[in-house]
């Protein structure tokens, strides 16, 4: 009987494993192979150059400039997104007044959840084009709003400025991601017994203390997963940057994903681009492992 079950499971698993091996594992292995060549993408022939591409990578100022931008995203995006997600989710779940010991969400919380989640319905391309038009110097919503409230002196070509373009794109990344984590954290908070919050409020704990001392410890596993996902997004960032600024002005918003794309399809250096991809593979893997280890803590039961 046990042998029959094992054969049954293998029969259904093998097609999925085969598809995964062909379309996921195989491209990874091919990328490692191509990274050791000087292949230009169109030629059917190439020469093996060993570690030459990786040696060149160490002195590539454009790569390090892009990696620096990814590092800033890694430092800011997860913290800002998780902080906003926890704040909004807390307000929607336990931030209202009235009810049992005042523990309920604010009025209209269901509508707010839809509004926050709405960016997730839009494709990355739509989000990028939308915000690119909003940042337009003339006729853009951002500068139009500043002029309407009497702050016209603050209006500027946001995406044309080396000082502001990167931060403008970062705001878009936070805006486009925070809604998902509002819903995710809100669902996790819904599983926390209300009696815990009632006891805290009766003991005189404020909203901030409740969030810090109760909600965050009980949601730590969810926050840990969110941190890893956002770290991976921060180390990518290709789609929005490519659509909104294409790395400009003067490479001030360049990221490694866009550097890889331009190297491969712009400069026709697929071997060197594959080396960039392999380097990013190990960087992302290292960051994910480090995030899981550094944020690991004892599970809080309730």
Question: Secondary-structure map with pairings?
Answer:
Layout: H1 2-34, H2 52-58, H3 61-94, H4 109-121, H5 124-134, H6 141-148, H7 165-190, H8 194-202, H9 207-218, H10 220-234, H11 238-244, H12 256-266, H13 270-294
CATH superfamily: MetI-like
CATH architecture call: Orthogonal Bundle
How do the helices and strands follow one another from N- to C-terminus? HHHHHHHHHHHHH
Report the radius of gyration as a whole number of Å.
24 Å
Please give the largest β-sheet: none
Integer average pLDDT = 87
Overall domain count: 1
CATH topology value: MetI-like fold
Structural class: mainly alpha
Helix count equals 13
The CATH class is identified as Mainly Alpha
Strand content: under 5%
- Shape descriptor reads globular
Please provide the count of β strands: 0
Distance between the termini: 40 Å
Helix content: 55-70%
Report on the architecture of this protein.
It is built from 13 helices and no strands. With 302 residues, it is mainly alpha-helical. The protein has a single domain, classed as MetI-like fold, CATH 1.10.3720. α3 packs antiparallel against α10 (220-234), α4 (109-121) crosses α7 and α10 (220-234) packs antiparallel against α13. It is globular, with a radius of gyration of 24 Å. The mean pLDDT is 87.
